[in-house]
Amino acid sequence: MTPETLGAASVVYVALMFLLAHAADRAAAAGRWRWMDRPVIYTLSLSVYCSAWTFYGAVGYATRSGLEFLTIYLGPGIVFAGAWWGLRRLVRVARLHRVTSIADLISSRFGKSAALAALVTLIGVLASTPYIALQLQSVSMALSAFASSGHPLPGNIALWVAVGLAAFAILFGTRNLAANERHHGVVIAIAVEAVIKLAAFLAVGAYVLWGMADGPADVLARIDRMAVSAGGEGWQIRPERWFTLIALSGAAVMVLPRMFHVLVVEANDESRLRQAGWAFPAYLAAMSFLVLPIAVVGMDLLPKGSNPDLYVLALPLSQGRDTLAALVFLGGFSSAMSMVVVSAIALSTMMANHWLVPLWLWLRQTALSEPAQAREDLGTLMLNARRLAIVAVIGAGWLYHRTTGGTTALAAMGTVAFSGMAQVLPAMVAGLVWRGATRRGAIAGIVAGALIWGRAIFLPSLGLAAPPAFPAGIDAFAGAVLLALAVNLLLLVLISLVDFPEPTERLQALSFVHAIAPDASASETAPAIQAEALLTLAGRIWGNDHALEVFRKAAEGQGKSGYLPDLTPRFLAGFERHLAGTVGAATASALMARVGGRGSVTVAELMEVAGEASRAREDNRRLELTSAELARTAAMLRESNEKLTVLSAQKDAFLGQISHELRTPMTSIRAFSEILMEPDLPAADRSRFAGIIQDEAGRMTRLLDDLLDLSVLESGRAQLKPGIVNLHDLIERALAAGGASAAGRDFAIRRNPVAEHLPVITDPDRLLQVLINVISNARKYCDASEPAIRIDARRSPQGGTEIDIHDNGSGIRPENRALIFEKFARLDDPSRAGGAGLGLAICKEIMGFLGGSISYLPGQGGACFRIALPPRPPRPHRGTESAENATG
Amino acid sequence: MRRLFLGRDAYRKRRLGDAARVLPVLFAVLVVLPPIWLPQYFSYGRGAVWLAASWALTIAATAALHRAIGRAKPEDEDDA
């Protein structure tokens, strides 16, 4: 087995993972993700904790320091034994606030502080660098174990590994900007890798335990011989290190960016912690106790100078078990790969949300809500920021690997990362259990702890500073960690005790400590946010479709139709949290402030809210259900009442108008026919007058045709003639017909011909009628100086077809939007329109008849109509048919 | 508002929640204290057996406890 073969095998392996992740992502996109949303997948994905450190480093660690290596797994064991108590609370609160990362959690708890988020991100990036370097180093080290002597490996293996993993992370971590930070493809891939690394480690462990040693009793005897052997004093447990490392690893399993990501962000609900609470420790125990036989047998059998980090490969190789060694290599590669990919995704989300986007917002001081002429796509900007961040994170890991020269023991690099990230723990725990913890306290504690960590642990690990001199008898690492954490905690508590936090922060503290949804948010006093501005903002981040869907659901919940809900405090708080699920709480809050120019709450207002709340809470609970129902009904009634009032007035007006419309041509027909009766009329005049009579009669006929058409549709007596038609041809015909009746203005038509080639099953003539009507309306009413019409067509996720017709005019005023689909509702002066205001009413009836709908989309920077068709037209109604036969 | 007294099922569920709190503390005591007090005794084979046994027991207890919690009827306000 040569390194080249193994390299090729790894490439094939990565390609397989690519396919798997791709398939899972596709299934998730199609809504078939229930099967991968199981507790067992969640538990397996947690095993990303077992990185290459566990695979190679743990054996080296055990060889050098004995049982101390177990501390790295005992810490998580303790934390997960309390999963139903501690972790469940963490997951619940994080889901409540749609937290995207550990930095987001802490920033959100401490008043959505952008500074705190940026600070935690910085620590995350610094601490993860040695950890990623560890993975890269392990892969190149493992390959070197296979190289025959005098046959050196190419020097840049670590670089190629880094490039490949960055590509994987970019492809599957930054596909789209979801409203929650879940990545099904990646999770499935790491769950499968978890199985592979467990199988590989079990195989080599069992082989060593029973194939090379004589079972557990023999291994224990070998361990006991260590006590009296030469290298045995390193095995003696050092109490301060024992305690410190258990505490550190317990912290790490919650606060390491990748662990927080799989444990909290990817968790769909808290109930799966019931299984993970025992299954994940079982996984860890199986992996960690097999380390012992490999370590002691390696020490006994392998030559003195060999690298203990590679015993796990060297043992099977020394016995000529090449296939087993290759399996072990793949297991180690899996563990390195899943760690680097998940870390890169988690860190890039943090860097993009907390560094790059706030920077960009600060650089651009313009209002974000204007449906700007140049509609910049914020979503793409954010995805690109993440891609950049992934390259930076993995690149930094590679640089660290280069700087340290790739010679450090793996476990030493891992503990540097753990101790750095642990500086976040005091703020996180205090934030979840103590309402009095404040932002300034958290910042002071984290900064002080991180500085001590940087000086006493991080820089020495790079060889850039000397390790601090502690009094003899105190372990330098344990001393530095305990000092940093103690100063961190002390500052956090002391400053919080004398501080007086801002109202936003106090609201968040209440919500985090008591795990209650913050319905009345700081946006209570929002003065002038426009629903449409929010819709535009959301559209720029999530894409128009998702934004429209969110707004439609919110409006529906309030009992309103259409896309614009009332801006109640509840809606605003929910919307901000939804936004925070994509960009983080601090950025979401900044965006909302930018759109609405929102003022902040005062302490007096806060106390008023709280006082009322506690008095009324009990009453409210009982009243809430009934009143919500009542409010919904009332909103519906109000809406329909307003509509009825306006319609009734319009009906009267229409009756007058229709009489007028019929009478005007009638009058001229009568007048001209009287003139025609004059015997001595010149032939030229005679034919001219006859022409006028004909035109007027035609106008009357058209009006009557429209009225008849409408009454046929409304009474359900229309005949559906379904057929299959290419949408492109239909739009082509509609444009030609609409163009024929246009008023001579030049319109720019923007289409996407490729996307339009969609087969549609419907009544083509009826659909054409609708298209012609909407397009000619756009031509008639668009008041832009350079008028343009844009037509987008595509399949909807449900299999139907959607056609959006935009123009760039001023659109339809909000107060008129409810009326445009009603009969005779012509909005401006009748002289500009050629009909009696029946066009859109007919369109609406036709679309209902075809089983689809036509609606007005607000916030698109002009008038925009969406025509939606079902996958197939509805079946004709038997009852009406027979009734019609009976009467006809 | 939390009720002051509960029926049998809800009472049982609260106590299961209490057990879930005790378990990690107990496990932490088992694995942290003995090696710190008697490093000489727990550094080698006996330590490995001790840690393996206490961890295996804890995992089994957690599994049983979580199963019981899952079976218990969900309480109205289980955020105890």
Automatic annotation (TrEMBL), chain B:
The keyword Membrane applies. Keywords: Membrane, Transmembrane, Transmembrane helix. The chain crosses the membrane at residues 21-42, 48-65. This is DUF3311 domain-containing protein. The lineage of its organism: Bacteria, Pseudomonadati, Pseudomonadota, Alphaproteobacteria, Rhodobacterales.
